[in-house]
Amino acid sequence: MLECRDLSVFYGQHHALDQVSVNIGPGELVVILGANGAGKSTLLKAISGLVPTVAGSRVLMDGTDITGMPAHDIVETGLALVPEGRGIFGDLTVLENLMLGAYPDRAAASEAENLRRVLALFPKLEERKKQIVRTMSGGEQQMVAIGRAMMSAPSILMLDEPSLGLSPILCSELFKTLEAVRGTGVGVLLVEQNAKQSLEIADRGYLLEVGRITGEDTARNLANDPAVQKAYLGGAAGTQSGAHADEPRRPAEAPAPPEAPAGVSAQAPAAGREDLRISAGSGGSQRIVADNAIPESIDDMVARAASVQSAPAETPRAASAPKAASGGMPGTSANGDVQRMLSSIEQAAANALKRRPAANGSPHAPPENGADQEALPEIEIYRKPKIEVYRRVRTASGEHMKKIKGD
Q: What CATH code would you report for 2-232?
Protein backbone atom coordinates (compact mmCIF):
# COMPACT_ATOMS: atom_id res chain seq x y z
CA MET A 1 0.00 0.00 0.00
CA LEU A 2 1.20 3.51 -0.89
CA GLU A 3 0.56 6.41 1.49
CA CYS A 4 1.50 10.07 1.07
CA ARG A 5 1.15 12.30 4.11
CA ASP A 6 1.43 16.09 4.04
CA LEU A 7 3.53 16.04 0.89
CA SER A 8 4.88 19.51 0.03
CA VAL A 9 7.17 20.59 -2.80
CA PHE A 10 8.70 23.96 -3.71
CA TYR A 11 10.17 25.05 -7.03
CA GLY A 12 12.18 28.01 -5.83
CA GLN A 13 9.56 30.34 -4.35
CA HIS A 14 6.69 28.52 -6.08
CA HIS A 15 4.67 26.28 -3.75
CA ALA A 16 3.85 23.41 -6.15
CA LEU A 17 2.37 20.99 -3.58
CA ASP A 18 0.88 21.96 -0.25
CA GLN A 19 0.43 19.13 2.27
CA VAL A 20 -1.04 16.61 -0.16
CA SER A 21 -2.22 13.30 1.32
CA VAL A 22 -3.30 10.37 -0.86
CA ASN A 23 -3.29 6.59 -0.56
CA ILE A 24 -3.75 3.62 -2.85
CA GLY A 25 -4.10 -0.07 -2.09
CA PRO A 26 -3.22 -3.22 -4.06
CA GLY A 27 -5.50 -3.87 -7.02
CA GLU A 28 -7.04 -0.41 -6.75
CA LEU A 29 -7.20 2.16 -9.53
CA VAL A 30 -7.10 5.74 -8.27
CA VAL A 31 -7.23 8.80 -10.53
CA ILE A 32 -5.91 12.30 -9.82
CA LEU A 33 -7.94 15.00 -11.57
CA GLY A 34 -6.80 18.57 -11.97
CA ALA A 35 -6.17 21.36 -14.44
CA ASN A 36 -2.83 22.10 -16.08
CA GLY A 37 -0.39 23.41 -13.50
CA ALA A 38 -2.31 21.99 -10.54
CA GLY A 39 0.67 19.85 -9.48
CA LYS A 40 -0.34 16.40 -10.74
CA SER A 41 2.97 15.53 -12.39
CA THR A 42 4.89 17.01 -9.47
CA LEU A 43 3.00 14.67 -7.13
CA LEU A 44 4.12 11.57 -9.07
CA LYS A 45 7.71 12.85 -9.29
CA ALA A 46 7.81 13.55 -5.56
CA ILE A 47 6.56 10.03 -4.78
CA SER A 48 9.18 8.58 -7.16
CA GLY A 49 12.02 10.57 -5.60
CA LEU A 50 12.64 12.66 -8.71
CA VAL A 51 12.01 15.98 -6.95
CA PRO A 52 12.86 16.81 -3.31
CA THR A 53 10.17 17.35 -0.69
CA VAL A 54 10.19 19.68 2.29
CA ALA A 55 10.48 18.69 5.93
CA GLY A 56 7.35 17.06 7.29
CA SER A 57 6.50 15.25 4.08
CA ARG A 58 6.21 11.47 4.27
CA VAL A 59 5.87 8.75 1.64
CA LEU A 60 5.21 5.23 2.94
CA MET A 61 5.36 2.05 0.88
CA ASP A 62 3.89 -0.96 2.70
CA GLY A 63 4.57 0.88 5.96
CA THR A 64 8.22 1.66 5.13
CA ASP A 65 9.20 5.31 4.97
CA ILE A 66 10.80 5.93 1.58
CA THR A 67 10.86 9.74 1.82
CA GLY A 68 14.11 11.14 0.45
CA MET A 69 15.37 7.80 -0.89
CA PRO A 70 17.13 7.79 -4.32
CA ALA A 71 14.84 7.03 -7.22
CA HIS A 72 16.55 3.72 -8.09
CA ASP A 73 16.06 2.50 -4.51
CA ILE A 74 12.38 3.49 -4.58
CA VAL A 75 11.89 1.26 -7.62
CA GLU A 76 13.15 -1.67 -5.54
CA THR A 77 10.30 -1.11 -3.06
CA GLY A 78 7.72 -1.85 -5.77
CA LEU A 79 6.96 1.57 -7.25
CA ALA A 80 7.15 2.12 -11.02
CA LEU A 81 6.49 5.33 -12.96
CA VAL A 82 5.48 5.77 -16.60
CA PRO A 83 6.38 9.45 -17.16
CA GLU A 84 4.60 11.90 -19.39
CA GLY A 85 6.01 11.57 -22.90
CA ARG A 86 6.73 7.84 -22.31
CA GLY A 87 10.52 8.18 -21.94
CA ILE A 88 11.27 5.15 -24.10
CA PHE A 89 14.52 4.45 -25.98
CA GLY A 90 13.50 5.03 -29.58
CA ASP A 91 16.59 3.51 -31.21
CA LEU A 92 16.22 0.20 -29.39
CA THR A 93 13.86 -2.63 -30.22
CA VAL A 94 10.67 -3.44 -28.34
CA LEU A 95 12.29 -6.41 -26.58
CA GLU A 96 15.36 -4.38 -25.58
CA ASN A 97 13.16 -1.69 -24.04
CA LEU A 98 11.19 -4.28 -22.11
CA MET A 99 14.29 -6.02 -20.79
CA LEU A 100 15.65 -2.72 -19.47
CA GLY A 101 12.61 -2.61 -17.20
CA ALA A 102 13.75 -5.87 -15.56
CA TYR A 103 16.93 -4.24 -14.23
CA PRO A 104 15.83 -4.00 -10.52
CA ASP A 105 16.92 -6.86 -8.27
CA ARG A 106 13.32 -7.56 -7.27
CA ALA A 107 12.50 -8.42 -10.91
CA ALA A 108 15.57 -10.55 -11.74
CA ALA A 109 14.14 -13.81 -10.43
CA SER A 110 10.82 -13.44 -12.26
CA GLU A 111 12.11 -11.89 -15.50
CA ALA A 112 10.73 -14.57 -17.83
CA GLU A 113 7.39 -14.68 -16.04
CA ASN A 114 7.07 -10.89 -16.15
CA LEU A 115 7.84 -10.87 -19.87
CA ARG A 116 5.13 -13.45 -20.55
CA ARG A 117 2.66 -11.38 -18.53
CA VAL A 118 3.50 -8.19 -20.43
CA LEU A 119 3.25 -9.85 -23.83
CA ALA A 120 -0.08 -11.36 -22.80
CA LEU A 121 -1.36 -7.88 -21.88
CA PHE A 122 -0.03 -6.41 -25.14
CA PRO A 123 -0.29 -8.99 -27.95
CA LYS A 124 0.97 -6.44 -30.49
CA LEU A 125 4.31 -6.30 -28.70
CA GLU A 126 4.65 -10.05 -29.13
CA GLU A 127 4.37 -9.59 -32.89
CA ARG A 128 6.86 -6.70 -32.98
CA LYS A 129 9.53 -7.67 -30.50
CA LYS A 130 12.29 -6.91 -33.00
CA GLN A 131 10.88 -3.64 -34.31
CA ILE A 132 12.66 -0.33 -33.60
CA VAL A 133 10.40 1.56 -31.19
CA ARG A 134 10.63 4.96 -32.89
CA THR A 135 9.02 3.45 -36.01
CA MET A 136 5.88 2.51 -34.07
CA SER A 137 2.68 4.49 -33.60
CA GLY A 138 2.02 6.57 -30.50
CA GLY A 139 -0.33 3.99 -29.03
CA GLU A 140 2.15 1.18 -29.56
CA GLN A 141 4.93 3.23 -27.98
CA GLN A 142 2.69 3.79 -24.95
CA MET A 143 2.27 0.02 -24.71
CA VAL A 144 6.06 -0.34 -24.66
CA ALA A 145 6.35 2.26 -21.88
CA ILE A 146 3.74 0.54 -19.71
CA GLY A 147 5.19 -2.89 -20.46
CA ARG A 148 8.68 -1.75 -19.47
CA ALA A 149 7.34 -0.48 -16.13
CA MET A 150 5.51 -3.78 -15.59
CA MET A 151 8.78 -5.67 -16.13
CA SER A 152 10.03 -4.29 -12.78
CA ALA A 153 7.35 -6.36 -10.99
CA PRO A 154 5.72 -3.34 -9.33
CA SER A 155 3.01 -3.47 -6.70
CA ILE A 156 2.05 0.15 -7.50
CA LEU A 157 2.13 1.49 -11.07
CA MET A 158 1.97 5.28 -11.59
CA LEU A 159 1.11 6.75 -14.98
CA ASP A 160 1.38 10.41 -15.98
CA GLU A 161 -1.00 11.38 -18.83
CA PRO A 162 -0.81 8.03 -20.67
CA SER A 163 -3.46 9.01 -23.25
CA LEU A 164 -1.65 12.19 -24.30
CA GLY A 165 -1.53 12.43 -28.09
CA LEU A 166 -3.53 9.25 -28.70
CA SER A 167 -6.58 8.95 -30.93
CA PRO A 168 -9.97 8.21 -29.29
CA ILE A 169 -9.83 4.58 -30.41
CA LEU A 170 -6.34 4.07 -28.95
CA CYS A 171 -7.45 5.81 -25.75
CA SER A 172 -10.25 3.28 -25.33
CA GLU A 173 -7.80 0.40 -25.83
CA LEU A 174 -5.40 1.97 -23.34
CA PHE A 175 -7.99 2.28 -20.58
CA LYS A 176 -9.08 -1.32 -21.17
CA THR A 177 -5.45 -2.32 -20.71
CA LEU A 178 -5.25 -0.41 -17.42
CA GLU A 179 -8.27 -2.35 -16.20
CA ALA A 180 -6.43 -5.56 -17.11
CA VAL A 181 -3.36 -4.35 -15.19
CA ARG A 182 -5.51 -3.74 -12.14
CA GLY A 183 -6.89 -7.24 -12.57
CA THR A 184 -3.40 -8.66 -11.98
CA GLY A 185 -3.40 -7.19 -8.46
CA VAL A 186 -1.22 -4.16 -9.25
CA GLY A 187 -2.41 -0.84 -7.83
CA VAL A 188 -2.65 1.94 -10.43
CA LEU A 189 -2.26 5.63 -9.63
CA LEU A 190 -3.38 7.52 -12.72
CA VAL A 191 -2.88 11.18 -13.57
CA GLU A 192 -5.13 11.89 -16.53
CA GLN A 193 -6.95 14.82 -18.13
CA ASN A 194 -9.43 12.53 -19.87
CA ALA A 195 -11.67 12.72 -16.83
CA LYS A 196 -14.66 10.94 -18.34
CA GLN A 197 -12.91 7.73 -19.33
CA SER A 198 -10.64 7.64 -16.29
CA LEU A 199 -13.60 7.96 -13.91
CA GLU A 200 -15.37 5.15 -15.76
CA ILE A 201 -12.62 2.65 -14.86
CA ALA A 202 -11.40 4.10 -11.54
CA ASP A 203 -12.39 3.03 -8.03
CA ARG A 204 -11.67 6.35 -6.35
CA GLY A 205 -10.49 9.79 -7.29
CA TYR A 206 -8.88 12.93 -5.87
CA LEU A 207 -9.31 16.51 -7.01
CA LEU A 208 -6.09 18.52 -7.05
CA GLU A 209 -6.29 22.30 -7.39
CA VAL A 210 -3.36 24.71 -7.10
CA GLY A 211 -1.27 22.14 -5.24
CA ARG A 212 -3.94 21.12 -2.73
CA ILE A 213 -6.37 18.21 -2.47
CA THR A 214 -9.84 19.77 -2.61
CA GLY A 215 -11.96 16.64 -2.88
CA GLU A 216 -11.94 12.86 -2.53
CA ASP A 217 -14.69 10.35 -3.26
CA THR A 218 -15.59 7.27 -5.21
CA ALA A 219 -15.33 7.56 -8.97
CA ARG A 220 -19.10 7.21 -9.38
CA ASN A 221 -19.86 10.00 -6.92
CA LEU A 222 -17.29 12.28 -8.53
CA ALA A 223 -18.76 11.65 -11.97
CA ASN A 224 -22.21 12.61 -10.66
CA ASP A 225 -21.00 15.70 -8.81
CA PRO A 226 -22.24 18.86 -10.61
CA ALA A 227 -19.08 20.79 -9.70
CA VAL A 228 -16.86 18.04 -11.14
CA GLN A 229 -19.03 17.85 -14.24
CA LYS A 230 -18.68 21.57 -14.81
CA ALA A 231 -14.93 21.70 -14.14
CA TYR A 232 -13.67 18.47 -15.73
CA LEU A 233 -16.46 16.87 -17.78
CA GLY A 234 -17.49 19.94 -19.75
CA GLY A 235 -21.01 19.79 -18.39
CA ALA A 236 -21.63 16.73 -20.58
CA ALA A 237 -23.27 14.73 -17.83
CA GLY A 238 -26.70 15.45 -16.47
CA THR A 239 -26.74 18.21 -13.90
CA GLN A 240 -30.03 17.33 -12.28
CA SER A 241 -29.90 16.08 -8.73
CA GLY A 242 -29.49 12.31 -8.61
CA ALA A 243 -28.99 11.94 -12.35
CA HIS A 244 -26.43 9.42 -13.51
CA ALA A 245 -23.41 10.79 -15.35
CA ASP A 246 -24.12 8.69 -18.42
CA GLU A 247 -27.73 9.81 -18.77
CA PRO A 248 -28.28 12.30 -21.60
CA ARG A 249 -29.54 15.70 -20.59
CA ARG A 250 -33.11 16.56 -21.45
CA PRO A 251 -33.34 19.70 -23.53
CA ALA A 252 -34.73 22.65 -21.65
CA GLU A 253 -38.26 23.63 -22.57
CA ALA A 254 -38.40 26.60 -24.89
CA PRO A 255 -39.80 29.75 -23.26
CA ALA A 256 -43.27 30.80 -24.27
CA PRO A 257 -43.19 33.30 -27.16
CA PRO A 258 -44.09 36.88 -26.29
CA GLU A 259 -47.59 38.10 -26.98
CA ALA A 260 -47.94 39.05 -30.62
CA PRO A 261 -48.53 42.76 -31.35
CA ALA A 262 -51.81 43.94 -32.73
CA GLY A 263 -52.38 42.85 -36.31
CA VAL A 264 -49.80 40.06 -36.23
CA SER A 265 -50.82 36.45 -36.61
CA ALA A 266 -50.07 34.37 -33.52
CA GLN A 267 -49.35 31.24 -35.56
CA ALA A 268 -45.94 29.61 -35.21
CA PRO A 269 -43.53 30.06 -38.13
CA ALA A 270 -43.19 27.32 -40.68
CA ALA A 271 -40.70 24.55 -39.97
CA GLY A 272 -37.15 25.46 -40.88
CA ARG A 273 -37.98 29.18 -41.19
CA GLU A 274 -36.30 31.61 -38.83
CA ASP A 275 -38.11 34.46 -37.14
CA LEU A 276 -37.46 38.00 -38.32
CA ARG A 277 -36.44 40.44 -35.63
CA ILE A 278 -37.07 44.08 -36.49
CA SER A 279 -36.29 47.08 -34.33
CA ALA A 280 -39.38 48.95 -33.19
CA GLY A 281 -37.68 52.12 -31.96
CA SER A 282 -37.68 53.08 -28.32
CA GLY A 283 -40.21 50.42 -27.57
CA GLY A 284 -37.56 47.69 -27.90
CA SER A 285 -37.83 44.97 -30.52
CA GLN A 286 -40.76 42.87 -31.55
CA ARG A 287 -40.54 39.27 -32.69
CA ILE A 288 -42.58 38.74 -35.83
CA VAL A 289 -42.83 36.05 -38.46
CA ALA A 290 -41.30 36.79 -41.87
CA ASP A 291 -44.47 35.70 -43.70
CA ASN A 292 -46.48 38.27 -41.75
CA ALA A 293 -44.08 41.16 -42.44
CA ILE A 294 -43.76 40.52 -46.19
CA PRO A 295 -47.03 40.58 -48.17
CA GLU A 296 -46.06 37.52 -50.20
CA SER A 297 -44.43 34.20 -49.41
CA ILE A 298 -40.67 33.75 -49.44
CA ASP A 299 -41.03 30.90 -51.96
CA ASP A 300 -42.74 33.22 -54.45
CA MET A 301 -39.99 35.80 -54.06
CA VAL A 302 -37.29 33.18 -54.69
CA ALA A 303 -39.11 31.88 -57.78
CA ARG A 304 -39.44 35.38 -59.21
CA ALA A 305 -35.77 36.15 -58.52
CA ALA A 306 -34.72 32.96 -60.33
CA SER A 307 -36.50 34.10 -63.52
CA VAL A 308 -34.90 37.55 -63.59
CA GLN A 309 -32.22 36.46 -66.10
CA SER A 310 -34.80 35.44 -68.71
CA ALA A 311 -37.25 38.28 -68.09
CA PRO A 312 -36.69 41.90 -69.28
CA ALA A 313 -36.02 44.56 -66.72
CA GLU A 314 -39.11 45.85 -65.00
CA THR A 315 -39.88 48.85 -62.93
CA PRO A 316 -39.41 48.45 -59.21
CA ARG A 317 -42.16 46.60 -57.42
CA ALA A 318 -42.47 49.42 -54.90
CA ALA A 319 -44.94 51.27 -57.13
CA SER A 320 -47.12 48.24 -57.75
CA ALA A 321 -46.55 46.22 -54.56
CA PRO A 322 -49.71 44.51 -53.35
CA LYS A 323 -51.25 45.73 -50.21
CA ALA A 324 -50.61 43.82 -47.01
CA ALA A 325 -53.01 40.98 -46.37
CA SER A 326 -55.21 40.91 -43.38
CA GLY A 327 -52.53 38.93 -41.54
CA GLY A 328 -49.85 41.57 -42.26
CA MET A 329 -48.88 44.73 -40.46
CA PRO A 330 -50.45 47.66 -42.30
CA GLY A 331 -49.34 51.04 -41.14
CA THR A 332 -46.49 49.81 -38.94
CA SER A 333 -42.96 51.08 -39.26
CA ALA A 334 -41.64 47.51 -39.44
CA ASN A 335 -43.67 46.74 -42.56
CA GLY A 336 -42.61 50.02 -44.16
CA ASP A 337 -38.95 49.26 -43.50
CA VAL A 338 -39.25 45.86 -45.15
CA GLN A 339 -41.04 47.33 -48.17
CA ARG A 340 -38.40 50.01 -48.65
CA MET A 341 -35.62 47.43 -48.33
CA LEU A 342 -37.24 45.15 -50.94
CA SER A 343 -37.83 48.06 -53.28
CA SER A 344 -34.20 49.19 -53.09
CA ILE A 345 -32.97 45.65 -53.76
CA GLU A 346 -35.19 45.24 -56.80
CA GLN A 347 -34.23 48.71 -58.09
CA ALA A 348 -30.55 47.75 -57.87
CA ALA A 349 -31.26 44.45 -59.65
CA ALA A 350 -33.14 46.25 -62.43
CA ASN A 351 -30.31 48.74 -62.93
CA ALA A 352 -27.76 45.91 -63.06
CA LEU A 353 -29.88 44.09 -65.65
CA LYS A 354 -29.96 47.18 -67.89
CA ARG A 355 -26.18 47.43 -67.80
CA ARG A 356 -25.58 43.73 -68.52
CA PRO A 357 -23.26 43.19 -71.55
CA ALA A 358 -25.04 42.08 -74.71
CA ALA A 359 -24.27 38.87 -76.58
CA ASN A 360 -22.13 40.77 -79.13
CA GLY A 361 -19.85 41.95 -76.35
CA SER A 362 -20.96 45.59 -76.42
CA PRO A 363 -21.22 46.82 -72.84
CA HIS A 364 -23.99 49.28 -73.70
CA ALA A 365 -26.34 47.33 -75.96
CA PRO A 366 -29.91 48.70 -75.55
CA PRO A 367 -32.44 46.43 -73.88
CA GLU A 368 -34.98 44.53 -75.95
CA ASN A 369 -37.86 46.82 -75.02
CA GLY A 370 -35.93 49.89 -76.24
CA ALA A 371 -36.25 51.76 -72.97
CA ASP A 372 -33.90 54.60 -72.29
CA GLN A 373 -31.07 53.95 -69.93
CA GLU A 374 -28.57 56.03 -68.09
CA ALA A 375 -25.29 56.45 -69.97
CA LEU A 376 -22.37 54.97 -68.13
CA PRO A 377 -19.08 56.87 -68.09
CA GLU A 378 -16.22 55.30 -69.95
CA ILE A 379 -12.84 55.97 -68.40
CA GLU A 380 -9.60 54.94 -70.03
CA ILE A 381 -6.34 55.52 -68.24
CA TYR A 382 -3.00 55.60 -69.99
CA ARG A 383 0.19 55.90 -68.03
CA LYS A 384 3.23 56.99 -70.00
CA PRO A 385 6.42 55.40 -68.71
CA LYS A 386 9.06 57.80 -67.49
CA ILE A 387 12.55 56.79 -68.52
CA GLU A 388 15.69 58.69 -67.62
CA VAL A 389 19.17 57.81 -68.86
CA TYR A 390 22.37 59.06 -67.22
CA ARG A 391 26.00 58.82 -68.25
CA ARG A 392 29.00 59.00 -65.96
CA VAL A 393 31.14 62.03 -66.96
CA ARG A 394 34.61 62.88 -65.74
CA THR A 395 35.51 66.56 -65.46
CA ALA A 396 38.22 68.57 -63.77
CA SER A 397 36.06 68.81 -60.67
CA GLY A 398 35.55 65.04 -60.56
CA GLU A 399 33.01 62.50 -61.72
CA HIS A 400 29.31 63.23 -61.96
CA MET A 401 26.21 61.82 -63.66
CA LYS A 402 24.91 63.70 -66.70
CA LYS A 403 21.31 63.24 -67.82
CA ILE A 404 21.20 62.47 -71.54
CA LYS A 405 17.56 61.35 -71.92
CA GLY A 406 14.38 61.86 -69.99
CA ASP A 407 11.17 63.87 -69.78
A: 3.40.50.300
